[in-house]
Amino acid sequence: MMIENVVGRFSLPLGIGANFLIDGLDYLIPMAVEEPSVVAAVSSAALLARTAGGFYTGSTDPVMIAQIQVLDLADMGKAKRAILASREEILACADTSPSLSRLGGGPQGIEVRDLPDTPAGPMLIVHLMIDCRDAMGANAANTSAEAVAPLIEQISGGRVGLRILSNLSDRRRAWAEVEIPAKAFESDDFPGREVIQGIAEANAFAVADPYRATTHNKGIFNGVDAVLLATGNDWRAVEAGAHAWAARDGQYRALTDWHVRGCGDFETLYGRLELPLAVGTVGGATRSHASAGVALKILGLDVEGQGRIAPESRGSAGGAEVGSDRRGARRLSEIVAVVGLAQNLAALRALATTGIQKGHMRLHARQVAVAAGAGGEAVERIAGQLIAEGSIRVERAKELLRQ
């Protein structure tokens, strides 16, 4: 059993996002989600991106932060200098996982932050930087933080309070990019240049207004969370970190950047999503949940992190490594970023053209038909009638079913 006091199972549909071309490789994306239109929308956006060469990705090393809170310090400056001077000793004490170190991970560095004015008085916060390789890293970070706590007290002369990881994993980021010609958005009802301009304007709205940004980012997580759930990862931790990242300059903003490039017949829509992504392909539910293991195999990323290698990557972020071979958790984070970007593209394209409800309500009508008791071919007939009438209600679906 994975949790306590189990009385049953609560299942979610497991779908496959199709059409994804990422760094020149084809992927099928397992997605666990209950909301209609999510899988269909992301597959449609992936097909659109595919016509322009697909998505390109990048990521930083998988470094997590473990925090140690130090209180009751007589001299904050002196304590900070002493901790920094003892860097090597602290890192050696924090090296609690021989297997992680053997794989090239483990403690990488320390930082000390001053918090001089808190409701509980001044404190120092020591950050341990832990390279977690293919693990999500919560256990590794927490174990290291607890191991160094007595040493930190001895060096600083203070009292250690909390020692725990931070879910703002801003040293462990992934990003995805795409660039699509305006002509790919052409339809009988909407010129391509008008569509991409509308998408760029919608994104600008979400950058400037927290009320819009909240819904905008929720749509991104329709895709991100679905992949995290399917692969047995902690979607709550990723969401918490990403929302904090979205407000890093003091205002909550869109996580994406969409803007128009070029002019005339050469106009394109460029999109980018970057966010903290602490994910794992070893440990946790990836081993204990059979479906999560299957999802990783579908992605070509086995639980030992010896999965498919991206042959090429482009993009940059803060000097992070780009273009190197990446396997396991790092590759998974890049795939998750792609799905979030594709989901956002699908939503913004709908908003800039027909509106978000047209496709969503068509799929919702099927749910209503099923809820009314329909089965087999009756589901599609009743759903079609509900849409035609513009009245997607369970009561009406029951009437149609009786007829």
Please describe the structure with a list of short key phrases separated by commas or semicolons.
403 residues; alpha+beta; 3-hydroxy-3-methylglutaryl-coenzyme A Reductase, Chain A, domain 2; Alpha-Beta Plaits; Helicase, Ruva Protein, domain 3; four-stranded antiparallel beta sheet; 10 strands; 20% strand; globular
Question: What does the model show?
Answer:
It is a single chain. With 403 residues, the chain is of the alpha+beta class. The chain contains 14 helices and 10 strands. The strands form 3 sheets. The chain has a 4-stranded antiparallel beta sheet. The chain is globular and about 80 Å long. It starts with 13 loop residues before the first strand and ends with a helix. Residues 305-325 have low confidence and may be disordered.
